[in-house]
Amino acid sequence: MADKSHVTIAETATIEEAFRRLNANMLGILFAQDAGGKIVGAVTDGDIRRRMLTGTTIHDKVAACVNRNFVWARAGGPREQILKLLDQRVHVIPILDVEGRLVDVFSRELFNLSDESEVFARARSPVRISFSGGGTDLTHYFVANDGGAVINATIKMYAHATLRRRSDARIRIYSHDFRCTVEADDLAELGTGGDLALIKSVVRLIKPTYGFELEVSADFPVGSGLGGSAVVSSAIIGCFNEFRSDQWDRHEIAEMAFQAERLMLNIPGGWQDQYATVFGGFNHMEFFSDQNTIVPLRLDTNIIAELEESLVLCYTGSGHDSGAIHRDQKAQHETGDAVAAAAKQKEVTRDIRRHLLRGQLLECGRLIDEAWHAKRKFSSKISSNALDAIYDFARQHGAVGGKLLGAGGGGYFMFFVRPFERYQLIAALEQRGHSCSRIMFEENGLRTWKSRFPARSA
């Protein structure tokens, strides 16, 4: 605002001094203060001249000309209130604090914006469950076998990322899940290996030209089989994308997440995780050597609700090493059993798609069981005696079918169960020591946005 001395005047000052200040501030108004600094009224050129017509002189005190019934606004009040006053009959509005002291002055030409706020980028990316086809989305498979196909859907469990740009080149990355902090003076010093290698790989791919602070967290455990690495990567990419003028599209973000994990870190795996978390919802995906096709499945809302009531997530109590499973799967993919199992997976995927769209969910549950038994033939590391025992136990207590999510080897089982048998299955599994939870589907994929907070005081 303008210098307060140009817009305020003591009640005890002379009218001559008031004229001098009115000429200096060019606003045509002054605000009179009492001895304690409280604004008690307004004084305009017209107010003074009207009083002088009645005999007041320039040597008299301002108090004689003060309009004590003046318009003002409280500091911190809504901007639209001030704009409405200015839109009516008032040309200049004093902004007063709770003690009546002047904080600012707004006019039709002078309306101070709030101080610049600190801007954060945020992102939230959902995990996925897969119904069938996992393993056929591996590059070595679909290139040699005329394509791969999967059906998956995102659920309401997320990876979260928050990014703040710095004015220098320093980098600070914190993972809440690993309780680990990595700091570097600049991008070159960040390095590649060691702690938080995946996050470093994503950052090196993006090559930001500024320093930053990044925090990442997840709603799911490491090695869950829910596509967590891709979910974390896409959330980070989404944050950086918020600061770009030419933003990457969804296909580009999924491909970048694939590149950071599969190519730069050389971690084996398929393609579905990256596309699922970025696109969101129910998708039928096909993979070929020249292109990937993502086809959203438009399911009736009642079908989705019934599917939510028919599925149970069961945590096995242990994570898995998806890279090791995929390496073994690649070594075994040309054996007769593996080739036949992959062909069965693609066949089941087509059938599940048809039954899902028609709401024939019991058939889907039976087909998920078929898909699981076919997938187990990809690699001996996909299941184990302990995992088979959990699956058999669930089948004995009401599960129609199920499968380990992700590569296998641990993480979450997903079970399909008939009505009126859901809770007996959950009770039996929990009595056995396995935590169970509901599935709620998420129709949106990666979400990114900016948020503003007042800048930190010095």
Automatic annotation (TrEMBL):
Which GO BP terms, alphabetically?
A: GDP-L-fucose salvage
Record SUPFAM superfamilies: CBS-domain pair, GHMP Kinase, C-terminal domain, Ribosomal protein S5 domain 2-like
Its Gene Ontology molecular function terms? ATP binding; fucokinase activity
InterPro entries, alphabetized:
CBS_dom (IPR000644), CBS_dom_sf (IPR046342), GHMP_Kinase-Related (IPR052203), GHMP_kinase_C_dom (IPR013750), GHMP_kinase_C_sf (IPR036554), GHMP_kinase_N_dom (IPR006204), HddA/FKP (IPR001174), Ribosomal_Su5_D2-typ_SF (IPR020568)
| Entry's family note | Belongs to the GHMP kinase family.
Can you name this protein? Answer: CBS domain-containing protein
Q: Show the stretches that span the lipid bilayer.
A: none
Residue ranges of the CBS domain? 1-61
Q: Which domain of life is it from?
A: Bacteria
PROSITE patterns, A to Z: CBS
| Pfam families named in the record | CBS, GHMP_kinases_C, GHMP_kinases_N
Signal peptide annotation = none
Q: Which UniProt keywords apply?
A: ATP-binding, CBS domain, Kinase, Nucleotide-binding, Transferase
